[in-house]
# Entry
Amino acid sequence: MKKHDTPMIDELENGPWPSFISGIKRLRDTHPEKRINEMTNDLLGQLEHSYETRKGYWKGGTVSVYGYGGGIIPRFSEVGSAFPASKEFHTLRVQPPAGNFYSTSMLRQLADSWEKHGSGLVTFHGQTGNIMFIGSTTENTQHFFDEINDYGFDLGGAGPCVRTAMSCVGAGRCEMSNVNEHKAHRLLVNNFTDDVHRPALPYKFKFKVSGCPNDCMNSIERADMSVIGTWRDDIKVDQEEFKKYVEMKGRKYVIDNIVTRCPTNAISLNDDDSIQIDNQNCVKCMHCLNVVPKALQCGDDKGVTILIGGKRTLKIGDLMGTVIVPFMKLEKEEDWERLVEIAEETIDFWADNALEHERCGEMIERIGLVNFLEGVGIDVDPNMVANPRESSYVRTDDWDDEAVKWYEKADQREKDSA
Amino acid sequence: MSESAKKEMRTPIETGCPDGFQYMHPTMRKNFGQWKYHEHPRPGVLVHVAHSGEEIWTVRAGTQRILDVFTLRTLCDIGDEFADGYVRFTIRSNIEYMVSDKDKVQPLIDALEKEGFIVGGTKNSVAMISHTQGWLHCDIPGTDASGVVKAMMDELIDEFRNNDMPNRVHLTTSCCQINCGGQGDIAINIQHTKPPKINHDLVSNVCERPSVVARCPVAAIRPAMVNGKPSLEVDEKKCICCGACFPPCPPMQINDPEHSKLAIWVGGNHSNARSKPSFQKLVAAGIPNNPPRWPEATAIVKRILSAYKEDARDWERINDWIERIGWPRFFELTELPFTKYHIDNWRGGRKTLNSSAYVRF
# Structure
């Protein structure tokens, strides 16, 4: 095998950070299987060509496994005659265990399967959250999938479908967890396996679950349906620990970094160095808990906030999710069923009403939040807005009826918040 | 497909997302949902303490992200020899080892560093850059992703290893304007500056023309007959060079070796802490897309980081810092030019203008 000259990407072997180029070269130079040596050699050759010409040379196509319509990112080389061994270089998107937990033995099993059928390159994880097995021929994608599917792994989404979901480390390790994140993640996405594997929706739909409003899964900005753990009773305070912190850091530091950083001015420092929190005005931003995790903890009346419609630029510009459920408990079986039902109703309504290639948030932008809420049967709530309407261009013919509805539901709201 | 061939095809088992619980460290399983607090004894190490009094120690390390199976097995070997055989990956593709015994932490760190992995990425560090696929695998990339990250992390390695920043800094890169890398405190993204170059011979065969027309955010694409063939044309005065037409219609090549530039955005923050989540804002553009090491982009990122480190207060993320000091001061401190392109003219852009008498002098 003649090795391609790669002077430009060789530069990426210098420097202290681990080099992916050195890794690909290890596969080329030391892997016992000739197929992998040749495939990675040509991959390096094509990558060098990209570096020299500042252009990409992969094209999409249609590749899937038997029974599914998605889950594979097909890549055919436009310069395959110069780099034949990597001319088919598809990626399999595989759903990781919720929370991204692995045993080393499971990782070894995946590595063994992958080098049998693929290039030997893998990423934990792609930006949607999949394990990315990068580089396989059309035929071998099927063999690799058959093998890992037998021991419990399944493909994720690609194309206009429900995509692989994400959840944080959550209750597995974090004291700020307010919900079983992994249960919510799996209940939601696994309810839609058909919509994951057979792309037939207007565009992509993503679920992300974060256990607290620190939102480590970036769900508000990246998920069509964002589920965020929260609580509605008081922040739990260990005053002795808090006083110890004041003693250690000093009052000025505590005032500058805790008291004045509270977005709703809900915190005071008492004269005896204990903390006073106006819990009714706490918006659960997490800042003070982040600063003093030993003294301040989330409350006990835990649940989730649900937002709909986050997405990045295409087509109309960036959108964040919007609150559609300010708070719901996830305790009883029917609570979990209701969570899945909200997802089902959202996806059904969106599938029926979206334009082609229109994300759920873009549809809401086009039709207005109220039409969406009526479509999925959720009542309006002042927590859904940053402020009420500023524009007077609105017809209010049915104002009295709507006001009656609000008062009629007051009893229910009182019961809910009790 | 013949009936006999079909019989040989294996029907998939649609199990979806596997349960992570089975792969958790036993101490984590035992104390699931029962954690009390955490501490951060040194960069790259976290200890979480449960109500039961049990502890789980986490060591976080950066890798090359695009892992070859040898590297993956090395990571597993370290897990077997120095940890308890359990790992997880963070959203920014760092690996985490979890052990219940404090005494295992230092040997684990030593083993990771001996193999060239970088322990760090916690708390007030510059975290691992979250990135996309780039030239290695994407079908529409304007640049590489792994290469930019490698070159940049070589320069930022001390900021990853240490906790010298006012708060954490999340960096992202994206090799097209779709921005798979997402929001970041600092984002380095492709910004095209010229309309697509159309190969009219191929359009009618390759592209579903009405959906390409519909894809354009500014309605600059219309059907046209070119050289007697059905094709598409672009109103170049309207075109914003976003590249949205390129994925559904590859003959509309948007990537240009010279005119596809890099832009830098700051202040994206997904957390709700202190203020509502924020989107990133444009601060620099026209930066050359200069492989293999992209020195111009790295230099600007370092300049922003150094101004932030110098001037921000404890706990301020980049967006909090700029909110306090104001944008004029930001441009002054970073010595970046403020241009007409910084003023948003997209729909809703008027909300980003200063409609007050608030001016800092």
Remarks:
- The longest helix of chain B spans residues 295-311.
- The CA atoms of residues 304 and 334 of chain B lie 6 Å apart.
- Chain B has ten helices and 15 strands.
- The longest strand of chain B covers residues 35-42.
